[in-house]
Design goal:
The complex is a heterodimer.
Chain A (H helix, E strand, L loop, with lengths): L1 E9 L2 E12 L2 E4 L3 E4 H14 L27 H19 L8 H8 L4 H7 L2 H4 L3 H10 L5 H51 L4 H16 L1 H58 L7 H9 L4 H80 L1
Antiparallel strand pairs in A: 1-2, 2-3, 2-4
Chain B lengths: L9 H4 L8 H6 L24 H15 L5 E12 L4 E11 L8 E7 H14 L23 H20 L7 H8 L3 H7 L6 H7 L12 H49 L6 H66 L9 H55 L1 H11 L13
Antiparallel strand pairs in B: 1-2, 2-3
Helix pairs in contact in B: 5-10, 9-10, 10-11
Classes of the chains: A alpha+beta, B mainly alpha.
């Protein structure tokens, strides 16, 4: 499946058009293109987060420009920013399309093919109701007793990754700012060398070419920084991926906590039952107190309560079994996707670093040659 | 098989000491952006062409051979700090080698301090007023801002003082000046200074007696042109000086950020497994680039700015010489006019007016000759300066290049292990 995104500006709203080309029986079919807004991408992602909590769901590009090096590009309507966001959204869809599990999702398919009423279709799944409440998740994080160590480590890693990439992006923006200053001040040489060359006889030509070289140098910074933005975007994707990693860890903590609570609840019920059966009161209970104060309950009443408890215990044991199974399934599947993610991350970041290095090399090479050319022309 | 980029181009990149063979020079054509690179030698072909300074050295050598055979060589070196009760100061060793008859011995070695150079210069101005005397580096240094005893400052000064003496040495008239001779040879210069010997040349004596107060109506065209040229020249150099200082300031601020940027990659590297080595590599690479940039800004401060300032000082002193010439001409013209007004029958011009005319014509001739010499030297100096700067820039870029190139193999090895054959083909080898 191939996805291509194009842009259209409609007053203050940016819409995205895409076509998907499907291969059915070796034939390419160009389906109709349709329009999607950024908010619909968000909706798609939120849906995927709920239905695939064990998957590291690809992140969306930033809604607002952050880590900007130059005040101007903080504008969300800036064409360069919009273009970079388009690339980010295209990338987002490609990542889903190439994911072994996510690519088969029906809602995703409809996102690419269903023109109208897609939003309603998504909402009809009732995914919002299935979403875990933030509060519940936070509570679980603090109270869980025995989470899988791998997930705890992963959570620490994702926190640190987020922190270090943010720091990197911030400093990179400052570096870019300063570099811009250096290049632009060189531009001032252009005019003065030109003026100086006017009063010289033999030196005139050499000075003119020196001045021209300075102007070219000064104006080259815009392209250089544009290329650097691409590198920054690649880093940003993994900054946001860290959040997705953490979401999977949170889900595990939630499930684990749920499990622990269920086990705890079951254990207390079993104990209650035992106490009622043997008549020993080891745990405090209101019923126990009132019986002490107001007289013993009848054997029939006790019998009834034991019966209820035994039913609850049975239910509880079933639930615990299924929760345990669920938990283990989750850990297995999540870890499989995390391994997949790790490989992807290492590959992608290596590529990003190579491109960055190659870019730096080509800039320097170009400067070596132009400076040498300048030297020889002066002769 | 070594990585295509692992081949070190350091032999040609570092310094410009090795002079390239002529064929190597011919092999490079810099027509349009199509650059033909030499084969063999460095496998990577990433080396720069022979550094410009080494090329320039070859040219200068040729110049010397073409020019007159030298019989006077002067070098300023070996600065030493002297700590006395009253003051602390630096002396420089002046070594002179000469076959001229004016020198009793073939070789001399004396020690002089800045004060002595300053004395020499004022004596030269006094005794050779019709000539352009080279400038000295700035006398006063704002204490607290610049350390007068720091290595960089002393070295910058030494180079300027050496230049000063070499310029006098090259001058056909100034190099024979008596004060200059004493400066180079006398064991006790202070004793000589105290004698207050005024060794003025004929012209010096003559010009000394030129009375001020005569106003020149119009400067002759050629001297007016020189005056205008010097005005604009000094103005442009001043602007370039300001821009250069601004650039250095911006580069330092850029450096500050770079020094924070590099280590963040190290921090990241500590979190990772497979990516640890490449990230650490990037951190080291950025560190190397930072160091290279620091060296570049130091070079700009030590080599580029002082020459600009020196030429601004030069223009100023030249403008005063022009003014003096104007005075000489003014006096002559005034006296000539006075004679004309006296309505004498005898067309003969009185002796003192003749003397004035003689004085003026000598001054004009000396000044014109010196201007031409100055223009030639200025061209050479600035060519060397600008190419030197371009060369330093090239060295900086090459250091950065090598740093970034060293990362590539770190990132590639692992890729091959995955079964992907990522072959990095640099475009410049195609």
């Amino acid at each position: 499946m191939y996805v291509f995104l194009f842009l259209k500006n409609n007053f203050s709203v940016v819409l995205f058009l895409f076509r998907s080309v499907e291969h059915t029986d070796g034939q390419s079919v160009l389906t109709d293109s349709l329009w999607r807004r950024y908010s619909e991408f968000e909706l798609l992602r939120n849906y995927l987060l709920v239905y695939y909590p064990h998957i590291v769901v690809p992140p969306l590009p930033e809604k607002r420009a952050e880590f900007v090096w130059h005040k101007l590009s903080a504008d969300n309507m800036d064409p360069d920013f919009v273009e970079r966001r388009r690339i980010g959204l295209e990338n987002f869809l490609l990542r889903i399309a190439s994911h072994p599990i996510l690519c088969r999702d029906k809602i995703f398919y409809l996102f690419l093919t269903q023109e109208g009423n897609w939003k309603e279709t998504v909402n009809e799944t009732g995914f919002q109701l299935k979403a875990d409440s933030r509060l519940k998740a936070l509570n679980a994080t603090f109270r869980v007793k025995n989470p899988d160590k791998r997930f705890t480590d992963l959570k620490h890693y994702s926190d640190e990754l987020q922190s270090v990439i943010s720091h990197l992006l911030r400093v990179r923006a400052r570096v870019a700012d300063r570099l811009y200053g250096v290049y632009k001040v060189h531009g001032n040489y252009g005019r003065v060398f030109s003026e100086w060359s006017a009063i010289e006889k033999e030196m005139g030509d050499g000075l003119q070419s020196a001045g021209h070289h300075m102007d070219v140098y000064a104006s080259s910074i815009d392209d250089i920084l544009e290329d650097e933005e691409h590198y920054a975007d690649q880093l940003k994707e993994y900054l946001f991926y860290a959040e997705a990693l953490r979401a999977v860890c949170r889900k595990h903590e939630l499930m684990q906590y749920d499990l622990e609570m269920a086990a705890q609840d079951l254990a207390s019920k079993k104990q209650q039952c035992e106490e009622l059966a043997t008549g020993t009161v080891r745990t405090f209970s209101l019923k126990g107190m009132t019986t002490k104060l107001f007289g013993q309950e009848t054997p029939e009443q006790r019998e009834a309560r034991i019966k209820v408890l035994e039913e609850q215990i049975n239910e509880g044991e079933q639930q615990l079994k299924s929760k345990n199974l669920e938990g283990r399934e989750f850990v297995k599947n999540a870890w499989a996707d995390i391994e997949r993610f790790k490989e992807q991350k290492n590959r992608d970041l290596k590529e990003a670093l190579i491109s960055y290095a190659v870019m730096q090399i080509s800039i320097r090479l170009h400067l070596v040659w132009t400076n040498s050319y300048l030297c020889l022309s002066e002769l | 098989m070594p990585h295509p980029l692992a081949g070190s181009s350091s032999e040609e990149a570092v310094g410009g000491d090795s002079t390239p063979s002529p064929d190597l020079l011919m092999a490079r054509s810099f027509g349009d952006k199509d650059l033909i690179l030499p084969n063999g030698g460095t496998p990577a072909g990433t080396s720069s062409p022979a550094s410009s300074s080494s090329l320039l050295n070859r040219l200068q050598l040729d110049d010397d051979i073409d020019g007159e055979t030298r019989d006077l060589f002067v070098i300023v070196d070996d600065p030493k700090k002297h700590v006395c009760t009253m003051e602390t100061y630096i002396t420089y060793r002046i070594t002179t080698k000469s076959t001229r008859v004016e020198f009793d011995l073939p070789e001399y070695s004396v020690r002089r301090r800045y004060q002595d150079f300053d004395w020499l210069r004022s004596k030269l101005e006094e005794s050779q007023p019709t000539h352009l005397i080279p400038p000295l580096p700035e006398k006063f240094v704002v204490k607290g801002v610049v350390d007068r005893f720091s290595e960089e400052f002393v070295e910058t000064r030494r180079k300027a003082l050496d230049k000063f003496l070499k310029r006098i040495t090259d001058h056909p008239v100034l190099s024979f000046n008596e004060h200059f001779n004493v400066f180079l040879t006398a064991k006790d210069l202070n004793a000589y200074k105290k004698q207050g010997i005024a060794l003025l040349t004929r012209m010096g004596e003559s010009v000394k007696h030129v009375t001020g107060g005569y106003k020149l109506r119009t400067r002759p065209l050629e001297f007016a042109a020189i005056g205008d040229y010097l005005d604009t020249f000094a103005l442009k150099l001043g602007t370039i000086d300001r821009i250069a200082q601004r650039i250095i300031k911006e580069e330092i601020e850029y450096l500050v950020e770079l020094r924070e940027y590099g280590p963040v990659y190290s921090t990241w590297s500590a979190l990772e497994g497979e990516l640890a080595e490449p990230l650490e590599g990037v951190s080291a690479c950025i560190g190397n680039c930072s160091t290279a940039l620091e060296e570049l800004t130091d070079d700009m401060t030590e080599d580029f700015l002082p020459v600009l300032r020196e030429y601004i000082l030069y223009s100023d002193s030249m403008k005063s010489v022009l003014k003096k010439r104007d005075q000489v001409q003014a006096e002559y013209e005034a006296k000539l006019e006075a004679v004309a007004l006296r309505k004498e029958d005898r067309p003969k011009v009185p002796a003192d007016v003749e003397k004035c005319q003689d004085r003026m014509e000598c001054f004009n001739a000396d000044l014109k000759a010196d201007m031409e010499r100055w223009q030639n030297n200025k061209r050479q100096d600035f060519r060397q300066l600008l190419m030197g700067m371009a060369d330093k820039n090239i060295q900086y870029y090459e250091k950065c290049l090598m740093a970034w190139e060293s990362i590539i193999p770190l990132l590639q090895e692992k890729q091959e292990a995955n079964g992907f054959q990522l072959v990095f083909i640099p475009w410049w080898s195609l």
